[in-house]
Every structure is written in C-alpha cells, then in structure tokens.
Amino acid sequence: MLRGRIGLVSRTLSSSAMGVVLLAGIGLPCTVAHAQTAEEDPATQAEPETAIDENVIIVTGFRGSLKEAQDIKREAVNVVDSIVAEDIAKMPDLNIAESIQRIPGVAVSREGGEGRNITLRGFAPDFTRTTLNGMEVPASSDGLDSGGFTINAGRSFDFHIFASELFNRIDVQKSQRASTEEGGIAGTVDLYTAHPFDYPGLTVVGSAQAGYNSLSHKIDPRFTALVSDTFADGLIGVLFSAAYSERTVRQEGFGTVRYTSPYETGDSWADTNPTVIGTVDGSCGAADPLDCLWAPRLPRADYFGNDQKRLGLTGSVQLAPADGLKLSFDWLHSELENDRRNYNSMEWLLTHGDPGNFTGQTPLEFVVGPDGKQLIAASFDDVTSWFESRYQYSKSTFNQYMFNADYDVSDDITFSGLVGYAADQADRTELRFYTRSAPHFYSYDFRDNPYVAQVDYGGWDPNDPDNFINAQTSGNRINNVDKKNFTTKGDFVYDGDRFSVLLGAAYNDRSVRYEEGYGDAVSQSPLDYIIPFPIDNFGRGLDETLVPFAVVDFDALRSAGGFPAGYTLDVGRGWKVSEETLGGYVEINSDFDIGSMLLRANAGVRYVRTKVTSEAVLNGTNVEQGNTYDNYLPSLNLALEITPDVVARFAYGRSMTRPGLGSLNIAGPSFGYTTRTVSNLGNPALKPYESNDLDLSFEYYTPNGGLVAVALFNKDIVTSLKTDVVEQMIDPVFWPGIYADPVYDPSYNADPAEVPYTFYIPVNSDDGNRVRGIEVTVNQPFTFLPGMLQYFGVAANYTHVSAEDSTGLSPNSYNATFYYDHKDYGVRLSVNKRDDYLLSEPGGNGHVQERKYGPTHVDFSAFVNVTEKFAVTLEGINITDEKELIYGTGFGDQYLPREYSHTGAQWFLGARYTY
Hints:
mainly beta, 22-stranded antiparallel barrel
C-alpha cells in the first residue's frame, strides 16, 4: 500500500475532526486532534485538555484551524493553501470573498464596502475557476457601488452572493493536476459545505448578531443555524443549515466622473477672459493654453443607499447502505437582493463653451495647480445642474443540486462519481431621471482637500425643489443574466504498493444567456416628485461638507403609479454562449526513498475537447457560429520531505483559460457598408489562453505548530488574445441579417457574398504574457513563551507579482492577523493591504491610465466563552473606515480623482449556542 502522504486529492479531514471544525464554521469553538505529544506544545502543558490517548492532544480555537490548514498544505502533493471553518466563521467576514483574501496571492476587489471578486497571483477574476463540492459553478450579481452598470455576464465568480457561514473549508489549488478540471490558469478555488456524517449524532447550533454601521447608523440582523443528525446506527444522516443577513449600506463621497480637458474633447472654454491664478503649462498643443487644463467633467456629490438581504440554505442527505458504499445528495440555495437609491448632484462642465440648451458655462476664475496642468479651483456663471436620481433593484438567485457516490469496488479499486446541476440568475431593473436647473453660479475648490471639493452655488439653493425647470427620463431598463452548468464525472483509482493510478472522465455543459429590455417612459412629471435631500448628516466622515441637493422621491412616484409596468426585450442585444467539454485524464501517484528523504510524486495528463456555440439575432434573423478545439494538459508535482519538518516542492503544468464571453459574443455587430468594415463583433473561432506554469517552494513546519514558507511561481502565457485588423469575407450566417438591414443598399458595392470587409475583432496571439511572483508565509503561535504570552500568535503572508500586462494587478499585497487565543476568550486583529492597481489602459477621456487605490482594511474579532455551550462575540469590519478611490493619470504622471467614497465601519455584537 502507499507509504507517506500521497493522496489523490488534498487531504480530507477525518469524520470526527471535520465535525468539530464545522461547529466552528457556524460560530463555535474549533477543536482539532493532532498526533503530537504534550511535550511538543507548551500551551497544552500549561492548560491540559481532554486527551484522546496518551500521545494525542487537542489544539483548540483559531490556532487549531491554522494547524489544520497547514496539515492540508503539508500533505498535499501539489501547491495548495487552505482555510478551515473556524478561521472563516470567527473572522468578521461578510461573505466568502473576504475569507479567501487571507490566502497568499489573493487580492479582493470591493464594491459597496464588501468583497466581490478575487484576483489570484495577479490574474484577472476570469482566470480563476471556482468549484462547490467538486463541481464548477457560476455566480453572478449586480454591482454594489458607483462603478456603473456592472451586472456580471462573464466568467468571473461573484463571491459576495454567498454568506461565509455556509462553508467549512476552502482550498486554493495553485498548481495543476490532471484530475483538476481545466479552465483556471491562475488556479482553482474549491468551496466545501457540511455533511451529516461529519457529526456523531444530533447537533443543533445557532448564532445571532446585531450589525451596526457607523455611517448609516442602522442596526441590522444576522442569523445562522445548523441542525444535523444521524439515524439507523449511523447509516443515514440529514443536515440543514441556514444563514440570513440584512445590511444597510450608505456609500457617500465626491466624484468628478473623470477629469478631462477641452483639448481632449475637441472644444474650448468660452472666450470670457477669466482671471487666471498660477502658471499654465500649455504644451498639449491647443491654440489657447487654457484648453490644456484638466478639469472635472461632472463634479458631483454622490450618495448610494443599499438595502441588502442575503439568504443562504444548505441541505445534505447521506446514506451508507453497504460496506464501502456512501451516497450523498447536496443542495445549496443562495439569494442576494439589493434595493438601491442613487443620488448625484452633477454640475455640467462636461462640454465647454457658451451656455445654452442646458450645456456650456461662463468661466470667471481659474486656479492652476503646481504642475500647470490641472484646474484645482474654478468659478463659473451659467452652469446648469443635472441632478441624477436612480432607482435600482437587483436580485441574484443561485441553486446547486448534486449527487455523489463513493464505492470500494475491491480492496485495491475505488470509484467516485458525481452528477450535478447549478443555475444562477441575476436580474437588474433601473429607472433614472435627470432634473435640470436654470443657469446659475457655481464654483469648486480642491486646494484644501484633493478628493472632496468645497463647492459654492452663490445665491442659488440646490436643495430647493422649486429651483428645477426641466426633467428627463434617461432610462427604464432591465438586464438579465442566466448561467447554467451541468456536470458529470467519474474516477477509478487502483491502489498498489507505493503507487496509485487514477483514470477519470468528465463532461460539462455550460451556458450563459444575456437579455436586455426597455420599459415605457414615466407618464407623470418627475418635477412633481422632487423633495429636499432625505438623508441626515450627508458627508459625515469625509473631512469636507457635502452640500445636500434635491432628489426624486421614488416611493411617492411608485405609490402614484409612476413606475411603468413591464419591459420589452431588445432581441438584437441578447445573446447566448454555450460550451460543451469532454475530458479524460490519467494520474499516477507514488513515493520514493532518497536516502533518509521521501519524495512524493504526482504526474498525469488531461485531454479535453471543447465545443463552443455562440448565438444571437441580427435584424430578425437567427445567427449561430461555432468552434471545436482540443487541448492536452500535462502536469507534474513533486514534494520532497527533506526532513520531517521541511518540505520542498516543484511543479510543472500546462494550463488553459477559455476566452472571455465578451470575445465570443456575436450580438449587435456594427457593419459599415460604405467603408466595408465590421466592429463590435466577437470571434467564436478563438482558442483559449494557454500557459506553461512552474512552481518552486520551501516549507518549514516549526516545532511549535507554525509554518514559514517561500513560494516562487512563473506563468508563461504562450497563447493569448488581442484585438486586430483582419480583412476577410463575412460568414454566410450573417448575410440574411445584412440584407434585411434597412441601412444596407446594393449600390454601396458592399455585398457580403462578393467583397471582403475589414474586421476589428479579437484574435489569438503568440505574443504572450509572463507573470512571476513570490509568496512568503509566516504563521507562528507563541506557545514557546511563558505564562499568558503563550496564547499570542501571528498569521501573515506577503505576495509580490510582476507581469507584462498589469491590468488588475497589485504588485505587492499582504495580510497579517495578530491574535490572542485562549480556550475561554480570544481577540484577533487583521490587516489586509494591496497596492494601487490598473483598471484600464488607455483610460477614458484622454487619460493614459485609470487606476484604483489599494486600500488598507483593518478587521477585529473577539469572543468570550461564557459556558461550554454559550459564547458572546464582537466583530468589526473595516474598523478604520478606509476610503475607496479611483483616479486617472492624465498625461501619465498626474493624480486626478474620479471617485472618492466611504461606507463606514461595520460592527457586529452577537451570541452563539450549541446543543
């Protein structure tokens, strides 16, 4: 039989250990057994606990969860980092994304004050696969901040739709294995829920918290519960868990909707000879040097009010009808609902020149910044206010149903298989108004605060509803995204003498459908429903006052029947992309003695065939294009146990990520018949990104239960994507739609059946991208110190990544948790930091780049075990109320804020009880 810790997957916790870890997953102290003598753990000597036998002690609490995660990493043959349940539940995490951010190499993007997507080892979210109980699943939602229309119709996984309490373990697979499904060049995130066989019998656990936000001053509930039991002498098990929370979020700040200059927009300031303070750098090439100055396009105060509800439910039934046979049925349901009012007090500096028709302005005074390029303060006459009021409602609903079977065919052969279906539906509706004023005086001044301007309206009152003379409906629309995954796979394992062989196959059928529709215009005049700003203490905590302004009362408008019913789908903007994949793989695991060292090895190859189908409607004609391609993905993982406490790893793998859905989407192409050009068209013939991956790491497991690790990685992307100009014939599937286009005329000599067109489309490229990095991990309990000091410890990691394409990449990031972990009480303080990162290059409105500030988030957690069954907790999220900032770089070396906002600190006071 196999020697050492080969394992076909990352080590699975024993039934008893997983049971106690799961109790922590919903808020109970974690207790994990390890084969370690009492002499090896000073904390245990000082405070002995119930022993399993004379050579086994119990490590409790947060230290126990860190130790369990280290054991998973140590015993895996590939590169893996993990979090077990106590770490998730006992940290103040709103959702699963914020739990994962404590893993080395993971950085989180936040929206509306909580994590949404992750970047792993510098790659954009599309390059990370996510599985739930072994099956790849989709998850989409709407955006929760001022970033615009951000409903997710791509491959990225929106982690914020899941409450962290639903899961008891997370593994992040960073190196490839043949048995790991393809699709994640960055890696694979594996999420695991609880099962009834994890428990010895009847278990009932519940927790309740009251959440308080320092900005909204609202108190919101948060509940979790779990019931699990086994019957028929442990042959049948049933489990149910639930997590529910409400969250009132106020995001407030000041924005410019990007800076730009009259020269960049092709116009000029009105020729009013304003007073100019400072020296103007007129090197942009404009005839008038003042037109080189960068100024806010739409300076505004921002308010985004979110009333959010999150519900998560899990169910599991397990059967052991015969020796060596285990059957499991799992279900997970999650809902994220968000009801939002957005208010923005935009002042029209978007276009420059003489005022008229609600545009233009009359410059009075300009104050030029020290660089000579930025207009840091200015005053105008004849400015029009375009005050924006938006009502948005979004809901994401996720369901997964999965059946698993594990069967010992013989002493040497085992079988495991699953069949699963997952569906996610994300919908969003939006009703938007602009109320417009008569021209008035307006000035802004960033001299005291570069992020929040002091503004002055002279004698005009922006909060008076009578000061508005016009209103228009910008949009009444709906957007729907439906994602579906069907998966079935099976593995046979032959277990020999110091080796094992795995043979497996997997089939997936994935689809994404996008729809867009529009509703009727509002029949009532929005001017009849304007009210003074309804929020107290607007701008609290920003160091500058935000001036309140009049907004549309959506509740009154709805009560008066002002919300039009129903939407008409725009068929031409809808699309569907489907992928069928069929894969087979073989994997060999073995170990070898090299003197006193043990080498564990894993080698294999995976073959997968992908069939892509892209569908749309062009001028009433159904259009469909497809493609099929094959990939061979070899992998090798070596783990050398140099000593019992030192492990060196090497890994090679060929990985792939399929093209983004936007690159495959063929809906809404733009045909230029007079120029014979094609744009805004995806390319289903694309092949995937491919990468050759190398990993090298060294891990030292300290005698006191700690870990010091250094990992180096290099990903050489040999096949990528780019947008190129290609001259070719138009696919015949588009011809009927072109001929049906009212704009098409045979006289243009542009018959798609006769002449080629010039395409601006995504194509594959051999000009790859290289991503390199280093991860350093230090986890150390101070159990070697005397007295109360032995309960202190630190868990920290640092990541540095460099890449030729740095979009979404923070070169440096770190996480550090400082804790005091006694069996009766404990405190933790966590710090998460990432560098600024690139959003787009080039940026909008003439900027060389657009970037996002890398915030430092500080979280807090404390507990007191009043009795063995009852505990009181206090948790804080973003306790320093860190600000969020997006900015542009202008000509390349400037710092021009686009959005600056905050959401307040979030605190939770609660209690946990177990029976």
